Amino acid sequence: MKEIGKNYGKSIAQVALRFLIQNDVVVIPKSTHKERMAENFDVFDFTLTVEDMDRISVLDTGESLFFSHQDPQTVE
């Protein structure tokens, strides 16, 4: 994501937001920092290529990096 961001002059967060937007996911980024709010809005001046979208898509392993949402004890 960092490498892709460099190609566009964007941060990893901006690339992630753009990826979601291009996948028709409604994003509601949250920040209390004015600079980050501005950065979050600055994702409409570029479009990720099909290759970039594919590179990002393969990062999804389908499993949480934090905990299992399927484990009843964790969910409680």
Quick overview of this protein structure:
The chain has 76 residues and is mainly alpha-helical.
Describe the secondary structure blueprint for this structure.
Elements: H1 2-8, H2 12-22, H3 34-41, H4 50-57, H5 72-75
Can you walk through the features of this model?
Helices cover 50% and strands 0% of the residues. It contains 5 helices and no strands. The radius of gyration is 15 Å and the shape is globular. It has one domain. It is mainly α. It starts with a helix and ends with a helix.
Largest sheet: none
What fraction, in percent, of the residue positions are helical?
A: 40-55%
Low-confidence stretches: none
Report the average pLDDT across residues.
91
- Structural class, please? mainly alpha
Report the end-to-end length measured between terminal Cα atoms. Answer: 34 Å
Q: How would you spell out the order of helices and strands? A: HHHHH
Number of domains: 1
General form? globular
Give the assembly state of these chains.
single chain
How many β-strands, per DSSP? Answer: 0
Q: How many individual helices?
A: 5
- Strand content bin: under 5%
